[in-house]
Amino acid sequence: MSSGKHERRGLLYLLVAMLHREEDCRGRGQEPWMKGISAETQYPLGRRTIVTVAGQFGKAGMRVATILAVAMSICGAFVTAAFSAYSKTVSASALGSVAPKSVASPWIGTWSLDTSQSKYSPGPPHKKATITVTDAGNGKLTYVTDITDGTGEMDHTEFTCAIDQTECPVVNGGAKETVSITKLDSRNLRFSWKFHNPPFSVVMLVKMSKDGKTQVAMSKGKLPDGKTLAVTEVWRKS
After folding, report:
1. In angstroms, rounded to a whole number, what is the distance separating the alpha carbons of residues 140 and 192?
2. How far apart are CA 217 and CA 233, in angstroms?
3. How far is CA 9 from CA 17, 22, 61, 74, 117, in A?
4. Which pLDDT belongs to residue 12?
5. CA-wise closest residue to 145 among 107, 182, 171
6. 165/183 Cα distance (integer angstroms)
7. Given this model, what pLDDT does residue 217 score?
8. DSSP the chain
9. CA 76/CA 34 separation, integer angstroms
10. Is the pTM here over 0.70, yes or no?
11. What is the pLDDT of residue 90?
């Protein structure tokens, strides 16, 4: 629901409440239980609250403040409940409009390579690897990968990308490389890697387990030397 509709509904609540209670209040003055109680206690909203409302909601706040002031002068007993209803509608609208876009994703977390269950062709297999996935905001994820390969050399890569097939640059020690991510369904992603020096490409399909604790990544492609790449990696959530 738009903020304008929330505002109109809230104002309607106040007006209905005023009409509903006006007859009871007319000619009676204060409610019997309110006699002898200070004005500030009788009307919990108070002047400060009215001024705050006006400041927060601009022109709409001024209209509300005017209605509240008139209502309080007629009979304050119902004002708090009516304003509470208005506040809830405005707050819901405000929260919906300013909430940051984030990724509620099972992929987020730190993942460790299960070397005993992973297979590499050609080899040798990695000795150790971790992937850390974080929410980068605006629908994007940041991947940070640290690998110790079969020869003992270490490799560090980073990239931030949305799951929308957009090609994103990969930071990998100056190597020219891009990746795009496609969502196949709630538990399956496709990564398309492009290497530029020398040029070749790799497609990696990643499947998440139902319990969200294991990923299986299967990569295939043709390496520059003509060999076929066929890799299955099993990742466990740390």
Report:
1. 16
2. 5
3. 12, 20, 14, 22, 59
4. 47
5. 171
6. 8
7. 98
8. --HHHHHHHHHHHHHHHHHHHHHHHTTT-S-GGGTTS-HHHHSTTHHHHHHHHHHHHHHHHHHHHHHHHHHHHH-GGGHHHHHHHHHHHHHHHHHHHHPPP----TT-EEEEE-TTT-EEESSPPPSEEEEEEEEEETTEEEEEEEEE-TTS-EEEEEEEEESSS--EE-BSTT--EEEEEEEEETTEEEEEEEEETTEEEEEEEEEE-TTSSEEEEEEEEE-TTSPEEEEEEEEEE-
9. 10
10. no
11. 45
pLDDT digits (tens, 9 = 90+) for 7-36: 555 544 444 444 444 444 444 444 443 444
Look up residue 93 and give its two tokens: 């609208």
Query: Tokens 């200070």 map to which residue?
Result: 38
The pLDDT assigned to 136 comes to 96
Ranges of residues in the chain with a pLDDT under 70 are 1-104, 174
Tokens representing 104?
């509620």
Cα atoms in the 13 Å half-sphere on the side-chain side of 41: 7
- Is residue 101 a contact partner of residue 137, using CB atoms and an 8 Å limit? yes
